[in-house]
Amino acid sequence: MIKTTLGRAGPLLGLVLLFLAGSLLSPTFLSSENLLNVLTRSAVIGIIAIGATFVITGKGLDLSVGAMAALVAGLSVLAMNAMLPTLGPFLSLVAGLLLALLFGGAAGFVNGGLVVWGKIDAFIVTLGTMGIMRSLITWMSDGGSISLDFALRDVGRPLYYGTVLGVPVPVLIFAVLAIGGEIVMTRLRFGRHVTAIGSNAQVARHSAIRVDRVRLATYVLQGLCVGLATLIYIPRLGAVTPSTGLLWELEAIAAVIIGGTALSGGYGRVWGTVVGVLILGLVANILNLTSLVSPHLNGAFQGVIIVIAVLLQRRRSID
Amino acid sequence: MQQNQQPGVLRLDGVAHAYGPNRVLNGIDLSVGTGEVLALVGENGAGKSTLMKIVAGYLAPGQGAATWEGRPIPSDPQGAEAAGIVLVHQEFALIPDLSVAENILLGHEPTGRLGLIDYAAMRETARNALRLLKSDIDPRAGLAGLPVSSWQVVELAKAFAARPRLLLMDEPTAVLGAKEADALFACIRDFVAGGGSVIFTSHRLDEVLAISDRVAVLRDGEITLDRPTDALNEHDIASAMIGREMSDLFPPLSPLPTAAPILSVEGLSVARNFGSPVQDVGFDLAPGEILGIAGLVGAGRTELVEGLVGLRPATARRFALKGVERPLPDAVEAWQLGLAYLTEDRKARGLLLGENLQVNTALTVGALTGGTVLDPGAEARLYEQAQGRYSIRAASPRIAVGRLSGGNQQKVLIAKTLASEPEIVILDEPTRGVDIGAKGQIYQVIADLAAQGKAVIVISSEMSELIGLAHRILVLDRGRVAGIIAPPEGERPTERDILDLALGLGTQGTPL
């Protein structure tokens, strides 16, 4: 019982330990400026990881989110630039934001459709679409970059740099989505059905659950999350390049797993994913702030954390 | 121990075996001599496969002695194989990605110089093994592309190529055509003429009489007949297979209702990858009626009802609910139409074993009529009702259903299936893996359903169950309706009536 509780609270415990370590190792760590900076930087991956929590809980996988983010961003920027002369900067931005959600949802629909109707393994489907989307953005940008018009940059700035009552906008969006995601996962029928198809799709099929529809919905939800994440990311960068969103899929999946969601499906928790994202963000931050270890070893630390998280998970499932 | 070290003699003395509390074999005395073909016959679950596994070294006997040529049978399959005992599985133990020849000589690959595999020798050996079975399968062909009957031939060729002295075959002809079966029998005759011994199981009594020297019948884990085949006919064997007094577990049967059928099916066909497809099945079902479906394993009982409730692609000439014709429903539509199906496989298809009792009981009804937001209070009430109605015993409604006993799991599955108050209830093996006390309770639930005017279909491998519960019994034989037994008021059919139809021995029941 104690072990079970420890396993469940493990990620939270890890976060607290990192927090203590950070405050001991660096005097600037606890400043609100630094902490808000960590949160803001984590928000983009965090929003994507919330979508990934649903996909993985339903025993799926989406490797294409990084490439999808780049493609959605590229398409939205092109659309906004094109609309600017007729609609003006503000309306173009709003239209571009809606388009980003639409593109994201559509890309998710393609992934989910191939998995559900094509009956192809999710790993293969999203490996394929990852390659396709990554190469499309490279082709569209001709290997260079697709820049947002300066008029649009000024209007869009608050999306990343703005604050509401001192809280950065990306953090606010991440928080709202996290709370919403947690409610959907634990309080809504959809969350239960996602858990059911991930736990045992045959049982779900025998229980009047439309397995295909639920599975498709998880991929569309993931696409919408990617669309939302690009919204706040575009104004920050101002341009999309072939390396935009590179390896985001691995960071998102890592956050989900560290948070205690089972990679084999059937058990997911959104709050865990939030903790996972923050753990990854704090590790990078602490390495940057202190000179104990080279920041280049960030990846190694993250890797160790992932392995420890899975070891703890396995202990839970044995209990 | 070494007193009767005759070559090629198998002896079982007082062999017993149990899986947990479930006793499957009891005091088995049996022997097989050199050059003898023994047919092992019995109903589903009589213990045939367990007995075969003990002889092949897959299982150590729980009690008693199993000896081969005077020595105890090695308790691992490799040891048994080295001693000359080879088991041909009912499920294929072949590797689809390898060629026919590679499969036949798996683990016995001929090697040339440098220890490399000699593929030419391998193909030649495989070809000879196949030729014995009068098969012209190309040894170089990939197994994955071949039909099931060829798989069985390859499996048999593999067994013969291992040069056994005692060959065990579990239902070897279940998927073979008549020509292939004849070739197998010729092969068996050659094999025993050369001093080998054979034990095989089969549901086909005509085959048993044609090929065996001796027949042993298993019933409820005990040998009820062991005699030379010459002195037997099919009906002797069938009589020995049945028996067992009908216990008073069964609640009294309500009178057969006379209402118009709530469900009518005509010309239902369901395709299958293995075994005979379900073809041209038709029946009517009235409210308040309990219809039993009987048949041997592989007769297509589960496939039939899975086709009916949209879990398998199927076609029907006519499907009518309450007299209204409509196309066959999909899996969710079936539930919406009040057609509920309780799976025979509660662990893989019935319950989310890691989720708690409340989540499981509410899963189906929630998917059908529940709102967007979960209602924990309603789920708790639903479970509380179910716990009382089906006497589920659990420490708490919040524990994982996988931690309950088989009987209690089954009651949770029944509660889950009936939570949406379906009009037509199809129960597939409702008492499988359930202790006797829970069985009686489940029978009462089924009788109550009928008394409430629900239409019920019960599939069961236990014939006594159908006789005790059902108003009428539909018997399937290789995918087709062999007959529907509708005894006159106050009379019950016998196991013999069912078995004769299920074995294709003719129509003792009232044919439709």
From TrEMBL, chain A:
Phylogenetic placement of the source organism: Bacteria, Pseudomonadati, Pseudomonadota, Alphaproteobacteria, Rhodobacterales
Recorded GO CC terms: plasma membrane
Keywords: Cell membrane, Membrane, Transmembrane, Transmembrane helix
Transmembrane among keywords: yes
Record bears the keyword Cytoplasm: no
Top-level division of the source organism's lineage: Bacteria
Localization: Cell membrane
TM segment ranges: 35-56, 63-84, 90-110, 122-140, 160-184, 216-234, 246-263, 270-287, 293-312
Topological type in the membrane: Multi-pass membrane protein
Any GO MF annotation of the entry: transmembrane transporter activity
Protein name, per record: ABC transporter permease
UniProtKB/TrEMBL annotation, chain B:
Function: Part of the ABC transporter complex LsrABCD involved in autoinducer 2 (AI-2) import. Responsible for energy coupling to the transport system.
Domain of life from the UniProt record: Bacteria
Major localization listed first in the record, in broad terms: membrane
Subcellular location(s) per record: Cell inner membrane
Residue ranges constituting the ABC transporter domain according to the UniProt record: 10-245, 263-503
EC number annotated for this UniProt entry: 7.6.2.13
GO-annotated molecular function: ATP binding; ATP hydrolysis activity
Gene Ontology CC terms, in alphabetical order: plasma membrane
Pfam family, one: ABC_tran
SMART domains assigned: AAA (SM00382)
Catalytic function, reaction form: ATP + H2O + (2R,4S)-2-methyl-2,3,3,4-tetrahydroxytetrahydrofuran-[AI-2-binding protein]Side 1 = ADP + phosphate + (2R,4S)-2-methyl-2,3,3,4-tetrahydroxytetrahydrofuranSide 2 + [AI-2-binding protein]Side 1
Keyword Protease listed: no
Keyword terms, alphabetized: ATP-binding, Nucleotide-binding
Family: Belongs to the ABC transporter superfamily. AI-2 autoinducer porter (TC 3.A.1.2.8) family.
UniProt-listed PROSITE patterns: ABC_TRANSPORTER_1 (PS00211), ABC_TRANSPORTER_2 (PS50893)
Entry protein name: Autoinducer 2 import ATP-binding protein LsrA
Assembly, per entry: The complex is composed of two ATP-binding proteins (LsrA), two transmembrane proteins (LsrC and LsrD) and a solute-binding protein (LsrB).
CDD domains, per database record: ABC_Carb_Monos_I, ABC_Carb_Monos_II
Transmembrane segments: none
Mode of membrane association: Peripheral membrane protein
